[in-house]
Amino acid sequence: MTTAPEVNSLIPTYTDAPATDVVHVRGGSLNAVEISAWFGSNKVLEKVSLEMPANTVTALIGPSGCGKSTFLRILNRMHELVPSAKLSGQVLLDGDDIYDPGHRITETRKRIGMVFQKPNPFPAMSIADNVTAGLKLTGTKIGKSDREALIERSLSRAGLWKEVKDRLKEPGSALSGGQQQRLCIARSLAVEPEVLLMDEPCSALDPTSTRRVEETIHEIKDQVTVVIVTHNMQQAARVSQQCAFFLAQLGTPGDIVEAGPTVDIFGNPKDPRTEDYVNGRFG
Amino acid sequence: MTALMDPPSTPSAPEPTPRVEDVPRSIDPGLPRSDKVFFGVSRAIGYSVFVLMGAIGLFLGLQSIPTFKRYGLGFLTESQWQPEKDILGISAVLVGTFTVALVAMVIAFPLALATALYISEYAPAKFKSFLVSMVDLMAAIPSIVWGLWGFFLLQPKAIHVAHWLHTHMGWVPFFNVDTDPNAAPWAQSRYAASAFIAGIAVSMMVLPMAAAVMRQVFSQAPIGEREAALGLGSTKWGMIRAVVLPFGAGGIIGGTMLSLGRALGETIAVVLIISPAFDIKFKPLEIGTSTISALIAGRFGEATSAQLSALLTAGFVLFIITLIINTLAAMIVARSRSGAQE
């Protein structure tokens, strides 16, 4: 592992993944340029720019209602699912604007996966079918043996393989909340995204499940760029190499107050508001 | 309160801890009188629905005793309805009833499904409520109007469809008509007044109900699962197939069966369109059929008391059939995910 030493001490060594078939996919770099966002006439983000380098974990922190989830959803075109939602600016994935009319939305969302706050496996599908749902939904054909290998590899990367390998045919809804969330991560990883967005993935989970998800983030970041929204300061400190602090002053749109290496944001913040927030003095 | 929590100023005389019996205690505060009255009234009204249903069933059942005594189970197998010869049976009208309902459902089901999907998934938000009210308005059109529509506007067009079906698919017995489709002036009257045309009119009547039930369950499909599918790179149609349709399966089946129950009992439109006939036949395109409700409506006025009993028996059979279908529909809706959340 190539993480900071203080993080290493917190995270137990992770051994679930079979060492033989590690996927050598590189994550993509994301660059948000002057993103503004509206819901109807209400402006929620103003000219937010943030670089999210390949193969790093970027944590978006900030109090509720500061626009960080909106920002995250803009990064894979989920924002526009809300009928009144509008935006301006650019999101560059490896230099290409994902909002360029030449890019297909489905292709963009396939390359930039998302894990949601509430675990949302497809309840009518088995665990195995949940993992391969993305392939089916995007019309990707896969052979039977490849499929089995993909299921094992994805579940292993999400740290769930050992727990479910004997009951792959059971419905996804039969799992516990933490297992469901890891199943959702496995499902996202199965389509081999270059970027994985996580919107408070642990807010509905118990501490043990939270730790497993954090282990998973450490495992996958060599192949996938991760952007995670979290309300948990310790989690941001544990999992991320880069951190962006969002804040919306009363009645004004959200903005990034300070962004930089996680060590600096937590250890040596430049802005007093950042210092107050990371030390739990407000928010 | 325990002795440990008592103030230190009275250590010499600690208050005795109240003895608590280790048995379940009543925690019901009781209802105020106004609530009791309201509760009683609403309960009485609620139960009266059951009483009414039971009374109707009981009445029909009692009325049909003489008929069943006289004709036995032959009443269900005899096809002719000839009171003058004392031959009464409902097998032909039963077949006719199901034929009309089947035609209605074959037409209404895909239309209702497509309507519901369009309104819940594709229609622009501004247009949505307008479409919903249009479909509801369709349900408000009186049966007699649908009957007139079917007779005067639909029939002259539909006979050409029936003729086309007969010409090209006449080798399927279901589409056969007892005439030569290729005769130079083809026998238009052989295709009129059929179960097919009555079925189209009935389908328009049951469509709004089926579409409303389906639309409602589709719109309840969880947003989390929808976003999960879209977030994986699914197209909208892929998302609908993976999330909305499985979630709405109970509503699709339930709504269809509820409309089937309605279609089986539809009367006035059928009476207007069909030409009564009492042969057991599975040729919906051909002239002549009858349904239970059309039979009752047609023969009620001139019936003697024995015939009246026979008509009520036919009604009793229809009552039982629709009761079973609607109960099954309710069970399916309730057991599905979409129904259970309501």
Summarize the structure in words:
- The complex is a heterodimer of chains A (283) and B (342).
- By secondary structure, chain A is of the alpha/beta class.
- Chain A has a domain at 25-120 and 194-278: P-loop containing nucleotide triphosphate hydrolases (Rossmann fold), CATH 3.40.50.
- Chain A is built from twelve helices and ten strands.
- In chain A, the strands form two sheets. Chain A has a six-stranded mixed sheet with strand order 6-7-8-3-9-10, with helices on both faces. A four-stranded antiparallel sheet of chain A has the order 2-1-4-5, with helices on one face.
- The two termini of chain A are 33 Å apart.
- The relative contact order of chain A is 0.20.
- Chain B has 342 residues and is an all-alpha fold.
- Chain B has a single domain (35-340), classed as MetI-like (MetI-like fold).
- Chain B contains twelve helices and two strands, in the order ααββαααααααααα.
- Chain B has helices at 33-71, 74-77, 91-122, 125-140, 143-169, 195-219, 223-231, 236-265, 268-273, 292-299, 305-335, 337-340, and strands at 81-82, 87-88.
- Chain B has a two-stranded antiparallel ribbon.
- In chain B, α10 packs antiparallel against α11.
- The longest helix of chain B has 39 residues, at 33-71.
- Chain B is flat and about 115 Å long.
- The two termini of chain B are 43 Å apart.
- The mean pLDDT of chain B is 88.
- Chains A and B meet through α3, α5 and α8 of A and α7 and α8 of B.
